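User: Hey, my collaborator sent me this sequence without any context and asked if I could get a structure. I don't really work with proteins. Can you help?
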Amino acid sequence: MEGQGGTTRSDELPTAFEPANVENKWYRFWMEKGYFRAGRVPEGKPFTIVIPPPNVTGALHMGHALDYTLQDILIRWRRMQGRDALWLPGTDHAGIATQNRVEATLLKETGQTRHDLGREAFVEKVWEWKRQYGSIITNQIRALGFSCDWSRERFTMDEGLSKAVREVFVRLYERGLIYRGKYIINWCPRCRTALSDIEVEHEELAGTLHYIRYPLAEGTGHLVVATTRPETMFGDVAVAVHPEDDRYRTWIGKTVRLPLTDREIPVIADAYVDPSFGTGCLKITPAHDPNDFEVGRRHRLPAPAVMNEDGTMNEGAGEFQGMDRFAARRAVVDKLREEGYLERVEEHRHAVGHCQRCQTVVEPFLSEQWFVKMKPLAEPAIEAVKAGRVRFVPERFEKLYLHWVENVRDWCISRQLWWGHRIPAWYCQACGETIVRVEEPERCPRCGSERLHQEEDVLDTWFSSALWPFSTMGWPEETEDFQRYFPTDVLVTGFDIIYFWVARMIFMSLAFTGHVPFRTVYIHGLVRDSQGRKMSKSLGNGIDPLEVVDKYGADALRFMLASGTSPGNDQRFYWEKVESSRHFANKIWNAARFVMMNVDGTADGRLDGLPLGWTDRWIVRRLNETVRDVTHALEDYDFGGAAKTVYDFVWSEFCDWYIEFSKAALYGGDSEARRTAGQVLVHVLDRALRLLHPFMPFVTEEIWQKLPVHGESLVVAPWPEVEIRFEDPRAAERVEEWMDLIRRVRNVRSEMNVPPGKPVPVVVRPNSEEALADLQAGLIFIRRLAHVEPCTFDLHAAAPPKSVTEVLSRAEVFIPLEGLVNLEDEIKRLEKEWADLQAEVDRVRVKLNNPSFVAKAPAAVVEEQRRKEQDYLARQQRVAARLQAVKNLM
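Assistant: No problem. I've predicted the 3D structure and written it out in structure-token form, which is a compact way to encode the shape of the chain:
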């Protein structure tokens, strides 16, 4: 029989599984056959995921690998269930990140800035860069076997999505939900652009609180103002006190001199002031603090700016003009001290905002920007989640979402960049009219002038990302894809972009399609390093997923990530876990080699009419239970539970038990027994490979293509279903009793140090005739797998001398050790082992009882020593128990 992958199905697999030899082959085969394309099964119910688009500038990191692995598991599983599965891929133009990258490259290679090139030429440079490097991350996505529908790949700045962006902007503007105005925004002096609140990361830093005297303009006396930013004092327009602060009631309405200037400013009363902070006097600098801006608006105060866009001081700072803001801070403090205005300084810890992209300290800046009114959009988004139309997994993230949405502020959507969606607004240079249109206007509708100039700013990257679930489907057109695949089924993402992206997608989707964008939001945690630290460039602890793939294969990485996942919780990356997953792939491979070497080409896995034995009925029942449990786990988004269930079944029950059971028939049975065992082996292996395929697509496809079963590819093979005919609890009870007996004998052999090649005698005393018959039925397996000889069954047997007793549910098992073990030598060996472990415990405790070691050693090293102590103590307890058991036999 010919396999569809271009190989001949045979009973041969290479001795070892080499991922590099199969991964490219199978991905190319899947692509050529079009298995990833949606629409292959038009009768199937749609199942849709849109990929969270990675930045076009980016390279795959471990967070991507986890995110996409979980999505691919869902897509491959649903595709095998017969659903019309669409996993739509794409990339984000990533405005600030991409522009910064290209600017840095341009400066390094040519010494030019974007301003030297001009806007049009620079934007073309970015497009060139995108065409050259933009496919790097999508190629990396392919390398991990992710089954996206690449025929539908989108980019947030392709023409279709750009049209959707313009359409949404215009409609929001026409509804009065987009406006332009001067407000305090977050400004990055490095990126030279506005940032939304959630693009600012706050870090607790040590700062200084400067106490500055503001002298009374007339008469004697002064107010003392405490500030962390004395360089902004040149923009002060008032000193505010609380209206009920008795210390300053008489000062309200007077004026004070602004130090280092010839200006006078009023003392005003405002309830915003916290009397307990500093001295209870607050300098009001409306152009450089968002709260001061609001105070200034209430009191109709001016808002002079004293800082430039690049973070240097402007002419309003007088002699400090041209200085960097932080250098100016030091110089201003020196000048205040010199002239007697600085009363004192105090250390002060406070949260300082940093640009998420470049980590520059963010400056509150008064600027004319475009904003979206969020409250009207938020109300339907709150209702959708509370009504259960959007479900969060785990549920606790619903509270996080609702807290942000219920307290949402207007969104600053304009960015002072050249790369991105240019705002579709034009200004008439003749009459000042603002024209907002989807397409570029030819003339002003108000005065007819053709002298129009388009807004220079572009939209926040997250504006286009918010439209991703429906713009990628062709909206605003009523395309076939939009009608069939929207709304999507599930969004898989990290908790860190619930605000940035998840909430905004719900806002926009409800506003423009009337539907929620997805029915379920699955939130996963971070992949941290082995010490629990977040992976970052600064720590140098990031791990390249492709490095892991090169070393261990994509399947090992995927299975490690999936098996370590629990909803909403972080996991740690350990190389040992990847190695363990690679060992699992090898275990499956070796099991498949055993099966193929012991069955002929007619063994297609069909069990109809076969005389199944007890162990055969046990394994197909356990397969049934595994199918049910894995399916339920995936339905509940319990990826770790699904992975563990299939791992335990394949490794323990199929490989370690059933394959060993089958050898009795394969090597000692008649032809019918051999044929039955072969059919069961193929049946179980076939379905186990199907269950594993979403997690480990490459090794499972390579094996499955060699199996003597029917089908094109595992990608489109039917997902296993529970078969009621194989529900046989009687077989399960009987075989699991044999397994318990075998396990107990093996444990005694190991604990008593019985040589592996030496058989042990066993006496079994069942508690009933029924138990006697059931246990005797497993004699061939007990002898073979526990290395027992002789094995005696007797309802009235007495415990032989010097024997170990094990109690089963329906029998007692006696294992005589006389002649097998020299008990005196065994006692000496165990006593030495206990003493050696005590020495290790003492050695570790010397370190842990040393305060200097605990204080100075890295936390991970100290934790490792504590772990060793607990491990040695646990081993010591086990040795002590064995020692007592042997002494009891003397």
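In plain terms: Confidence is low (pLDDT under 50) at residues 1-11. You can pass these tokens on to your collaborator as they are.
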